[in-house]
Write a structure and sequence with these properties.
The structure holds 2 protein chains of 2 kinds. By secondary structure, chain A is an alpha/beta fold. Chain A is built from 13 helices and 14 strands. Chain A has a domain of about 230 residues: Thiamin diphosphate (ThDP)-binding fold, Pyr/PP domains (Rossmann fold, 3-Layer(aba) Sandwich). In chain A, about 30% of the residues lie in helices and about 20% in strands. Chain A has an 8-stranded mixed beta sheet with strand order 2-1-3-4-8-7-13-9, sandwiched between helices. Chain A has a 3-stranded antiparallel beta sheet with strand order 10-11-12. A two-stranded antiparallel ribbon of chain A has the order 5-6. In chain A, strand 11 and strand 12 form a beta hairpin. The radius of gyration of chain A is 22 Å and the shape is globular. In chain B, helix 4 packs across helix 8, helix 6 packs parallel to helix 8 and helix 17 crosses helix 20. Chain B has 3 domains: about 220 residues, Pyruvate-ferredoxin Oxidoreductase, domain 3 (3-Layer(aba) Sandwich); about 190 residues, Rossmann fold (3-Layer(aba) Sandwich), CATH 3.40.50.970; about 110 residues, Rossmann fold (3-Layer(aba) Sandwich), CATH 3.40.50.920. By secondary structure, chain B is of the alpha/beta class. Classes of the chains: A alpha/beta, B alpha/beta. Chains A and B meet through strand 1, strand 2, helix 4, helix 6 and helix 12 of A and helix 1, strand 9, helix 9, helix 11 and helix 12 of B. Strand 14 of chain A pairs antiparallel with strand 9 of chain B.
């Protein structure tokens, strides 16, 4: 039995089995023509997902992609696995039922910022707190793309869109903060164009055993082009993003001379070597911390005040929803024996008419 | 008043008695009624019950909205309803008297707890004068019994406060009724011991109260007569008492066994459907998985997800929750997965009257989805029949690979009747196999006879495919915007449901095969209509009763049956929903009788409507 990064046995996931079943990226490409706009960030996410799948060692008939509505919702059609394109916001609910009924399946939920955080917000909260063993990948482009350009729950305050010509008056949601508050056991962030990092993040996410929330910063080149450009572009990314690594000090910058230090209850950006700051003063990342304080702090750090953290913010072991359900069934069977229908039908007080 | 008996009371045989227990919602009236019901059922009477309780858990004590009632009719012959009106009303306080005495016919027995008729309670009930003394009850056989005082005396010496003692007075009242109708109290004592085993003082108090009430009836001269209602001649077999919600849960459990598939139940608490969740959550040793979802949408979403995985996905709600589930139900229609949705109807619209009865969601479940979105609808007619229709809903869902709506209602859900326990061998095999053949698989290729699509579940090698809410291309199931394909698929979805008409039980007629009047019903109106037709037939009227268990599609012979009578009357506890469907589909000039009072029909009002149509008395 393979082990996850948090040391738990992982039924259904067999990375060492990957060589035995010998699938390649091509095996995961369906016969359907991909129909996103040319230049859309979704292409990259699809490609990295297909590329990563063989490494899980899971037979493709045991993999299910479930999506909601929005541009992201089309992804299951392009994966040559089982797939279910459901209704707006409800993908986590179907995934919860499927995983409870069929614990051996590997279930992915593909969603977007509108799908997951507006219409489906409630289901995201509850699937996370239940630790449903699903891998939720949320494409965040800060806009409603499929409906042609309205403000989304992650659109920045004051954003002018078709539906908010004078600027939105709504404060945006911080997706990772929400996932952490909802007790997700794995929380991570990556970027559509940072392909290597994205694939690594998807790998970690797929191997995690429990409710997994991955925010992928994704570019909608038609309705919100360049939404993340200020910190994701090649020239600036090293100075404006913080790549998290478990057990490592939080260092960033082209010259690896910037870091994050805690001042009171707040993070601050410092320069190593200035004002007596040394590497030893910096925060050390701990994705496995029992309490999510550090992860919550990281989830609130954003450009331009801070470098944008990417990577795994949190990965903790917790019994999964389907495991707990199975345990109760096992306990009930051992306590009272396998169910006897005839006995249950005739339970309570009975009488016989001759 | 309570002098010891010097003459033996007279014993009178009765065919049928209807008792209503009414009191404050804290007085334990539901419990009292349930205990009387069990005893009558075990004794062998036919029974029918109607609990009537407020939605508030504890409305202010002594207030009119806080009154809780439980009516039971028990008989030595076959009965179908809990009785139009009580023969005996037990009123534990002025509010209970005020809200219920109007239903008691002149001459009816009225037993009151006179201790509760304090100035304060009279005021809360809105009585300006004490009805026990102002002569306003003189048309009834009034028995004033100081139940609280007598009960407290019986509990003398027990280590309890007066208030705690007073909580047992319902058992004193029950004891009186047991004596009055010649019932044994052993079963109730066993129940008390079982229930309060860990609190021996409470058990002792309730047992003493019960026995004291019984002894009071036996030894005082207040009652000159007591009664016997002989056992009914039911079909031979083993029986138990069952409510509609219990039978629904058992039926779903049995269906899982008969289909040899695990049951997954996704649900969000709602009155009056919650008891199904409570019961199914106790069947874990059958492998039943229950899921209390975050909302109604998640409940059906999870059920659809489980169905997609090959389990029997089940969800339940009442009207407001069904409204929330509608979009997902449309998805189930589009992706063609087997799913059963239980709607335990209640009075609406909106929150309406959550604990009160209505059968007004028929058009909602037929048409309450975007576009043409046909699905089969079944409806049990009696509490016991909920079991059979649960299995029937699953037979259809699995055979035709389709969502099915199962319409129960508050009256069926909480009402009880004796139920002949079925033997497993007599139940149908409803199992179906999933598609596994790689060579011949197209997800939207259909069985030529049933039009069921090929259902393959995740985990089946080589059959990886995608489904979803977007329109499907015929056969391949790929996304399609082709105009002719959409038209064809709409017709296929419609034809699939229509074809079931030949695969469901024909509409049966009770009474003459042709005649002056057919009374057509569905759901929980069965008892009142059947009793009315029995009465009309006994009077020589040419009236028949037909009751639909399948509301979509209608059984194949429905039109033929309807056209065999000069007139058709459709009584419904809604404003004419089946009526609309029947008139639209068959162009038959049927007439409705529609009353929505949150209560089931009385037999007399159905008889009256039939007589009006037949011109009796003109």
């Amino acid at each position: 039995m393979p082990e996850t990064t948090n040391g738990q046995a992982e039924p259904g996931l067999s990375p060492e089995n990957a060589e035995v079943i010998q699938l390649t990226r091509k095996d995961f490409v369906s016969d359907q023509e991909v129909r996103w706009c040319p230049g859309c960030g979704d292409y990259s996410i699809l490609a990295q997902t297909q590329k990563q799948m063989p490494d899980f060692g899971v037979p493709k008939e045991n993999i299910v992609f479930i999506s909601g509505i929005g541009c992201s919702g089309r992804l299951p059609y392009y994966m040559n696995t089982y797939g279910f394109h459901t209704i707006h916001g409800r993908a986590p609910t179907l995934a919860t039922g499927l995983k409870a009924a069929r614990p051996e399946l590997m279930v992915w939920v593909i969603t977007g910022d509108g799908d997951a955080l507006s219409i489906g917000g409630n289901h995201v909260l509850h699937s996370m707190r239940r630790n449903v063993d699903i891998t939720m990948v949320m494409f965040n482009n800060r806009i409603y793309g499929l409906t042609k350009g309205q403000a989304s729950p992650t659109s920045e305050f004051g954003k002018k869109t078709k539906s908010t010509p004078a600027g939105t008056v709504d404060t945006p949601i911080m997706p990772l903060t929400v996932a952490l508050a909802a007790e997700a056991s794995f929380v991570a962030r990556s970027v559509d164009t940072h392909t290597e990092h994205l694939q690594q993040t998807l790998q970690r996410a797929g191997l995690h055993h429990g409710s997994t929330f991955v925010e992928v910063l994704q570019n909608c080149n038609i309705f919100n082009d360049g939404a993340w450009r200020d910190f994701t572009d090649r020239e600036v990314r090293e100075d404006r993003m913080l790549v998290l690594e478990h057990g490592q000090p939080m260092i960033f910058g082209k010259d690896r001379d910037k870091g994050i230090r805690l001042r009171g209850l707040h993070p601050e950006v410092v320069t190593i070597g200035e004002n007596g700051v040394t590497e030893a003063d910096l925060l050390v990342h701990d994705e496995q911390a029992e309490e999510p304080y550090l992860a919550l702090m990281l989830s609130r750090m954003f450009w331009p005040d801070f470098p944008v953290p990417v990577g795994v913010l949190r990965a903790v072991p917790r019994p999964t929803h389907d495991q707990l359900i199975e345990q109760q069934i096992t306990a009930a069977v051992s306590a009272s024996g396998a169910g006897d229908l005839a006995a249950v039908l005739a339970s309570g007080e009975t009488w016989t008419v001759e | 008043m309570t002098t010891a008996r010097t003459v033996e009371p007279e014993l009178q045989e009765l065919d049928r008695v209807t008792i209503r227990f009414a009191g404050d919602s804290g007085d334990g009236m539901q419990l009292t009624g349930t205990q009387f019901t069990r005893t009558a059922a075990v004794y062998g009477n036919d029974i029918s019950t109607l609990p009537d309780f407020p939605a508030e858990i504890r409305a202010p004590a002594g207030s009119l909205p806080g009154v809780s009632g439980f009516q039971i009719s028990f008989s030595s012959s076959d009965i179908h309803t809990p009785g139009d009106e009580p023969d005996v009303l037990v009123a534990m306080n002025p509010a209970a008297l005020k809200t219920n005495v109007g239903d008691l016919p002149a001459g009816g027995a009225l037993i009151v707890n006179s201790d509760a008729f304090s100035a304060q309670n009279l005021n809360k009930a809105g009585y300006a004068a004490n009805p026990l003394t102002d002569g306003s009850l003189k048309q009834y056989a009034l028995f004033e019994i100081p139940i609280s005082t007598l009960n407290e005396r019986a509990l003398d010496g027990l280590d309890m406060t007066s208030k705690q003692k007073d909580l047992t007075k319902n058992f004193f009242a029950l004891g009186i009724m047991f004596w009055l109708y010649g019932r044994e109290f052993d079963a109730t004592i066993r129940w008390i011991e079982d229930k309060f085993g860990k609190r021996p003082v409470v058990a002792e108090a309730n047992i003493r109260a019960l026995k004291a009430g019984y002894a009071f009836g036996e030894t005082t001269e207040i009652f000159h007569t007591h009664y016997r209602v002989a056992p009914a001649k039911l079909d031979p077999g083993t029986y138990r008492n069952i409510t509609g919600n219990e039978a629904t849960a058992l039926g779903m459990l049995a269906a899982s066994k008969l289909a040899d598939r695990p049951l997954f139940y996704g649900s969000y608490p709602i009155t009056p459907a919650s008891d199904i969740l409570h019961q199914l959550s106790g069947y874990k040793n059958f492998g039943v998985k229950t899921f209390q979802a975050e909302d109604e949408i998640a409940a059906i979403g999870a059920a659809i997800g489980a169905a997609y995985g090959g389990a029997m996905g089940l969800t339940a709600s009442s009207g407001p929750g069904i409204a929330l589930k509608s979009e997902a139900l449309g998805l189930a229609v589009m992706v063609e997965l087997p799913l059963v949705v239980i709607d335990v109807q209640r009075a609406g619209p909106s929150t309406g009257m959550p604990t009160k009865n209505e059968q007004a969601d028929l058009l909602q479940v037929m048409f309450g989805r975007n576009s043409d979105s046909p699905l089969p609808v079944v409806a049990p007619a009696t509490p016991g029949e909920c079991f059979d229709l649960a299995i029937e809903a699953w037979r259809i869902a699995l055979k035709y690979v389709t969502p099915v709506v199962y319409l129960s209602d508050a009256f069926l859900a909480t009402g009880a009747e004796p139920w002949k326990i079925p033997t497993l061998e007599d139940l149908p095999d409803i199992s179906v196999a999933n598609w596994t053949d790689k060579e011949t698989f197209h997800p939207y290729e259909r069985d030529p006879k049933t039009l069921a699509r090929k259902w393959a579940v995740p985990g089946t090698p080589g059959l990886e495919h995608r489904i979803g809410g977007l329109e499907k291309a015929d056969i391949t199931g790929n996304v399609s915007y082709d105009p002719d394909n959409h038209h064809r698929m709409q017709l296929l979805r419609q034809a699939k449901v229509a074809r079931m008409a030949d695969d469901i039980a024909p509409l049966e007629v009770f009474g003459p095969e042709r005649g002056d009047l057919l009374i057509l019903g569905w759901g929980s109106t069965f008892g009142a209509i059947r009793s009315a037709v029995e009465r009309l037939n006994a009077e020589g009227r040419s009236v028949a009763h037909a009751h639909l268990r399948h509301l979509n599609p209608f059984p194949a012979n429905t039109e033929k049956v309807l056209r065999s009578y000069r007139r058709v009357l459709i009584p419904e506890v809604n404003l004419g929903q089946l009526l609309l469907l029947i008139r639209a589909q068959f162009l038959i000039d049927a007439e409705g009788y529609n009353r929505v009072r949150g209560k089931p029909f009385r037999i007399a009002e159905i008889v009256e409507q039939a007589e009006r149509i037949l011109g009796v008395g003109d």
